[in-house]
TrEMBL record:
This is Aminoglycoside phosphotransferase domain-containing protein. InterPro entries: AGP_Transferase, Aminoglycoside_PTrfase, Kinase-like_dom_sf. PANTHER family: AMINOGLYCOSIDE PHOSPHOTRANSFERASE DOMAIN-CONTAINING PROTEIN (PTHR21310:SF15), AMINOGLYCOSIDE PHOSPHOTRANSFERASE-RELATED-RELATED (PTHR21310). Signal peptide: none annotated. Residues 187-232 form the Aminoglycoside phosphotransferase domain. Residues 290-327 are annotated as: Disordered. It holds the Pfam family APH.
């Protein structure tokens, strides 16, 4: 049987255990669900993936990590363990707070975050609007102008330290299958060489007012932090994932090389020092994409430098509309 956390009036962000009432801006109930309860029976739960569950409850949006008992199992029998499931939500919350305090970029306000029975919850305000990907090409071009300004604002934020505002280093999603192999004990730069990058700025993560075309919120900052500028590719220029399509340059070898040369261990052995970080991101192709059309899979023998696996996606489908604007 589901248990309930009652969230009462306050405006102070908080991080509490599940045994203590959590204060937010309105009286809302957030279900803390028993393991393996079907999504269809969970109040307010509108989506679930192999890593997360999502809820829309009144004027709040909730996403949480899966509990170990909820991990998916592949046909091979292997357990799908989400990489840095808790840490990514923690970084998301830290980045949202940092961006709201340091810039005028529109992002959802963090209401609270807490852990309950091995699941980490992040609760943010509800934001009205539609996904940028649901606009016409002409209207998307208008939104891009504002996005480019926000991007410049992000790049004006600099640091000597790699990673998020609290020091968490979350590798971009396109390096997901290599994340467990990377040493993330990284050295600092001698100067403030790293700029703030979103690292997942796709059309699905841009919520827009359909009438004014103003951006209401930029979502999903879990991979964000201070990195070389070339990490932050303009994925919003076309529909699709935050990863190279077959017609685009695969920049994963470059990103992997960065992490390998900036480890403290590697730099002790590298008298030339780490690689430069001030070059621009790789180009992203702009084209009209048939959203329901699956990507063409490459051949098994496709060559990739540095042992890189082909960057394929089984298909692209439209996201559920109005992620932060559902009624």
């Amino acid at each position: 049987m589901a248990r309930i956390h009652t969230l009462r009036s306050s405006t102070v962000p908080c991080s509490e255990t599940a045994t203590t009432p959590v204060n937010i801006t309105t009286t809302t109930q957030v279900p803390v669900l028993s393991d393996r309860q079907p999504v269809s029976r969970e109040k307010g739960c509108w989506a679930a993936t192999s890593e997360r569950k999502y809820y829309s409850l009144g004027n709040v949006h909730v996403k949480r990590s899966l509990r170990p008992s909820e991990f998916h199992v592949r046909h091979s029998g292997d357990l799908v363990v989400p990489h840095q499931g808790k840490e990514r939500l923690q970084n998301d919350a830290a980045c949202l707070r940092f961006i709201r305090s340091a810039t005028n970029i529109p992002v959802p306000a963090v209401i609270c975050e807490f852990e309950d029975q091995e699941a980490y919850y992040l609760i943010t305000e509800h934001v009205e609007g539609i996904c940028m990907g649901d606009l016409s090409e002409e209207k998307r071009r208008v939104v891009e102008v504002e996005l480019e300004q926000h991007r410049k604002t992000l790049w004006s934020l600099k640091s000597k330290r790699i990673g998020g505002p609290t020091g968490l280093v979350i590798t971009p999603h396109r390096l997901y299958c290599y994340a467990d192999t990377l040493d993330l004990d990284l050295q600092d730069a001698s100067e403030e060489d790293f700029v703030f990058c979103h690292n997942d700025c796709s059309q699905a993560n841009i919520i827009v007012d359909p009438d004014t075309l103003k951006i209401n919120a930029i979502l999903d900052w879990e991979y964000a932090g201070f990195y070389p500028r070339y990490f932050d590719r303009p994925w919003y220029k076309r529909w699709g994932p935050a990863g190279a399509l077959p017609s685009e340059e695969d920049d994963r070898p470059r990103l992997l090389a960065f992490f390998r040369t900036w480890t403290k261990k590697s730099n002790k052995q590298n008298t030339a020092g780490p690689a430069p970080v001030d070059s621009d991101p790789a180009h992203v192709c702009r084209f009209k994409w048939a959203r329901s059309r699956p990507l063409q899979k490459g051949k098994a023998g496709d060559d990739k430098p540095d042992g890189i696996k082909p960057n394929f996606s089984p298909g692209l489908t439209r996201p559920i509309k109005n992620v932060h604007g559902r009624s």
